[in-house]
Known about the structure:
It contains eleven helices and eight strands. By secondary structure, it is α/β, with parallel strands linked by helices.
Amino acid sequence: xxxxxxxxxxxxxxxxxxxxxxxxxxxxxxxxxxxxxxxxxxxxxxxxxxxxxxxxxxxxxxxxxxxxxxxxxxxxxxxxxxxxxxxxxxxxxxxxxxxxxxxxxxxxxxxxxxxxxxxxxxxxxxxxxxxxxxxxxxxxxxxxxxxxxxxxxxxxxxxxxxxxxxxxxxxxxxxxxxxxxxxxxxxxxxxxxxxxxxxxxxxxxxxxxxxxxxxxxxxxxxxxxxxxxxxxxxxxxxxxxxxxxxx
Length: 247
């Protein structure tokens, strides 16, 4: 049988993790009032950070679990309702996830293969054959000018198969045959949940986001350090919290 000391330790671990989550919510919400309620700061943080919005329902469940414990506490160190160890493990993992969300670099393709607008098409085709990538950011100096894809190259080749040689063609020439490829930019400091939110926002408006280009500051006039496609996002396996979720 589990000792009273072990059960007490579980309660302390649960409360410590819950308090860390509360502190993290205050940080995300830029809330300096230490007495603000968990529910109130959760609502505020949700509007400011995607990592909180993604875990919003789980965090509400944590509140219910914590209330169930505290309301059955009959002394400063004695609980009638003690949390199960699996519940404690989950809330500790959730606390860590909020404190350190997975960085975008965990799924992004890097370094990025990109070209300048005057790069010969022959070199681009050679790179496609060697590297196997199907999307290449194109830059004029340090300004992003478009996303070159295999589809755009195919369209160009089909239209010019008789009258122009590849040696005379540059990335700039082929870009004019690209459709309106939607591209977004995020900073290196972004996390997985920022990536997910960006793709979801385009999907909500029934637009396909071809890629998210990662730069130092998340702007189009900086050279890329990484690139993320919807296929990259599929690599991410989110943590599961089945007990908290179904409590």
